[in-house]
Amino acid sequence: MKIIDAHLHFGRGEYFDTVAWAAGHENTEEALRRAYAEVGIVHGVVMGNLPVEETSPDYPNLFHYCVGIGGDGVTEIVEGRIEKLLPALETHLQSERCVGIKLYPGYHYFYIYDDMLAPVYELAAQYQKPVAVHTGLTATEKALLKYAHPNVMDEAATKFRDVNFVMCHFGEPYFTDAVAVMEKNLNVSADLSGMLAGKIQDFALFCERKKFYIEQLHGWLAYLNAYDRLMFGTDWPLANLDDYIAFTKLFIPEEHWNAVFYDNAVRIYNLHIE
User: Fold this and answer.
1) Looking at residues 97-104, what average pLDDT do you find?
2) Local confidence band at 139 (pLDDT 50, 70, 90 cut-offs)
3) In angstroms, how far is CA 236 from the centroid of its own chain?
4) CA distance 130 to 163
5) From 86, 108, 186, 256, which residue has the greatest number of CB atoms within 10 Å?
6) Residue-wise over 28-63: b if at least 16 C-beta within 10 A, else e?
7) Do 74 and 108 form a contact (C-beta atoms < 8 A)?
8) Could you tell me the CATH number of the domain that includes residue 241?
9) Is position 109 within any domain?
């Protein structure tokens, strides 16, 4: 089975090195290519952490990417900041390798339905590229969950119907709310990344301890029955690849594996893979 990793981070530095080692991997391009080949991952979509102003990010040809919008290190996301970013953002979107936009509202303290983002959404609609949004739990204590709760996607998806949104991490652990948002808004898809971290030493014991979590996730996804709008993702380098594939198979019925692990990412991100 061919697999696309629809949500990963690719960067250099101590943080990425540390979390990769914790997951049983090495944070290098060569090691990632080997790890991908071993588990059948043939392509990936990088969620960008680089400044928007870097209009030619040096990602390996194994990846497409979503351009990430963040603060400038001095200010957070404000209207003036958005206006300054628009020319560079459009340059990214004109590239075939850029397949979307990534927002981090919990980390940068803004609501994604704020009208200051209307010019961003206009560009997304113009170039027919989705807007991926970090939802659910955050990696730092300074982040605020009120901005990252999946419910904020409802207002954004309603106000900006011409935009296709991707709910990253499926709003974990707010699964009931995530389901409600996706059931109501057909312009919202989700990736299933970010639910594991590190290397699991005893997978059977882990599954037993997480039985309630897995059953809830399996049940709500079955209720939603929107397997055509779900994508596999690992949140590399946070999780071990073997673990994450096995984990995802626990709550996705086998008849939907090809869609969730490959086909949906190709369609949603309009990937052109050689």
Assistant:
1) 96
2) confident
3) 10
4) 7
5) 108
6) eeeebeebbeebebebbbbbbebbbeebebebeebb
7) no
8) 3.20.20.140
9) yes
